[in-house]
Request: fold
Amino acid sequence: MRWPRRSLVSLLVALAVSLQPGLAQSQKDKDAQKKQDDAIRVETRLVTMDVIVKDKKGKYITDLKTEDFTVFENGTVQKVDFFEPPLGGGSETPQPGTTDPVTPATSAGAAFGGGRSNLISLVMDGATTDLSNFKQVKEGSLKYIRERITDTDTVAVFGIANDLQLLQSFTQDKAKLIASLEKGAMMPASNKSLERGQLAEGIEQMRAELNSLGGVDPSASPSGAAAGAAAAAQGSAAGRALIVNRILQQFNLLRSQLSIQQARPVLAALAAICSAQQGLPGKKTVILFSQGFITSSTLDWQVQSVIDIANRANIAIYIMDSAGLRTSAPQSTSPVPTAPLAGVSGLASTESRIQAVGGENVFDNVRHEGLNREYDILYRIAGDTGGEFIKGTNDLAKGLNRIDEEIRARYTLAWYSSDANFDGSFRKLKVEVRRPDTRITARGGYYANAGEELVSFSAEEKKLLAGVAAAEANPALSLFVELSPFRFRGGNYVIPMSIEVPPGAMKFDRKGDKQIVQFDVLGLIREKSGKVISRLGGSFNIGLTNEQYQSVLQNNIFVRQDMELAPGSYDIELVFRDRATGKVAAKREKLVLPAMDAEFSTSGVVLSRHVEPIKKVAGAPEPVDVFSQAGVQIRPSPSHEFRAEDSMIVFFEVYNAEVNKETGNPMVWVSVRLMKDGQAVSKPIDYVLTENNSLPAPHLTFARFIKLTGLPAGRYTAIIETRDMMTKKLIKLQSPFVVTQ
Reply:
């Protein structure tokens, strides 16, 4: 399911207006539109940060005032335009430093019925949490709801498995929250059957609740003024519903953009939950229960995107290890590079270590970070958003109490950056307070991205992308790229992107008994509007044995990455750089993915000269890959170059073949001919396909060897005819290739 893609900024502004009934009712549409435009203009410069201050004994200090804080951005003092004291202490009321409509203080009272608000999202990662551990997650969460939630708190409960589940929309009703946690405790048992339909069901449930209040469907409101009028009629329930509706829509979008084949659904869920709350007032917190997961270094940008989105929304992400106290040995001893947003870390005093409850303390975090790869991303997401990763305790209630104390001790500072050039660069932040002998915890900085960019690029990457046109026109390397769309689940496509580079122009350096080659691959995906929605690639440092090195010399350097996209039109830009020589090549491709129907059809043809056996792990299911067939995996050859002694593999998929009612199977006839200069150079080779595969989408697979023995060097074309024997429908495909000596 693909939701309408409206401007994220516009949606957030409309949401902010809808939470201010008085403002919406007192102005005409024209004035409301001007307010939206003004809000968009200044929102890009507004930087918000939560700060926690402790004394030398580790006690929270909650009675500081605006004038006690000094904020530095890249060494330059910033004027604090907004200040809000902790929810759990201090007598000072929120202080706006400006009357601008986006100042959080102006809408704080209207958001959820008046007073200062505390938005908490409880998120249960059922994709990684074992069913046996959900009992302690449920018990700890129930105790937290019963004993710690107050009238200033508005809480929602989400679950993650294959998709994002709305277990309870934002509410202050403890009974509803308790019921949702009981439901969520059973989530892992059925997570294999969770599909996008449950998202639609959750949205319909929210709409039904609104209609019962005599309200208006918030997703149907075309403007900020209309949304505001709807919220005025519906009360604070509408504001909460709008947030949830936005989260569910955003998850559908982000799940596609973050490519579920490569990144865990939890990344898309966290990004959706955080982005939907940007621009809302109040203290905002996400508490994630997870056992951790691993992503490759080439997907590091996806983790960074989640961090950037959370920081723009000023949301602290706290993470509880749902596995509790573990006795297993660390899975890795390789250190993790320090993240640019790393917060306060250091060796705590013996006293503070003794006092630590509800999981490990700062000392333990520093000691263990980097030793368990499943935890590395959790440490990073929590630390870089101003939260904390708590593990090593079977008493999750104590861990939640520890988080709750921090939530209620946070100051909120906001300022309009004196540097208006939001160019994506990283800006260091430093906070000082007048009071002596204090310890400050705050984010170490932020990426100054313009607007609502999902994807971040470094200055060097931007420079590389700026030279795409020149590198494509005058490449210093030969670069072959092939995009091969195949039908995937949920009405989407999975598109393997295969890259080949001949090794002759690359530089290899010998280190010991290895040949080292280093290169960068950087790609981006733009939707039709020109907005960058995803990126590909990474930095590669590969050490080859002598046998592997000789094999590469006889073939090509090969890289493959998959992406999942909804039907639509996209532009792909790709840059390949040999790091040792600085040689660069680039490609730009247009990708059109048609809406799927029930007509007889095929994918495009993929040619290959390489197959590799699939390594099987005892007790583990065979990995699902679009190019897997009969225990082997096919490696595409985007150069379409073959030697005469090669056997060429022809691969494609067939969709919607009619089923024979007598046999219960489809019957598809396939004929392959090789042509040169319009003349046949081989007899037709005929095959019949009858075996239907159900995953990830129903299809028949054609994967056959075609011998090229005896063919002279030259350019050829493979002509493939595919006929549904039941309906007699015929599809003709062709794919050019080259035979070399």
Remarks:
- The first strand starts at residue 46 and ends at 55.
- The chain has a mean pLDDT of 75.
- The longest helix spans residues 236-257.
